[in-house]
Amino acid sequence: MDKARLAAQSRANLDERFKELGAGGRYKAPVRGWIKAIREALGMTTEQLSKRLGIKQPSIVAIEQSEAKGTIEMATLRRVAEALDCVLVYAFVPNEPLETMVRERARRFARRRRAAVEHSMLLEDQAVTGKDTDKRLDEIVRETNPRLFWD
Known about the structure:
Layout: H1 3-21, H2 34-42, H3 46-53, H4 57-69, H5 74-83, H6 98-123, H7 130-143
């Protein structure tokens, strides 16, 4: 299978998985972070969590602040999640389907290519319509290595 078809299959598979996750906005972390939110919802003190992790209580405060600032390390998140009897879920959830993103980039790619062709054809007194390019969009997406769309 060529690169374009592999990429298309990969997009389709990922887009299917993303449908199960729903909109990315629903995963926005609480302002003070997940650790503090869950710890407090469980009625657990920073001292109790520190004992579960085998660290000193001020370290929990620092960890919670680090998460809220977005500077916490993944390994630390994983350890704290386990101590809270949670599972750390890490994902990039696209704002729109990957196929939509690629099709939009393919349109831009096709427009750039069309502009160069239209200029030459105008010099030869021939015209190319936008309809011609739109009709070929599926073909361009299917047959072009998608790496070219991101330059």
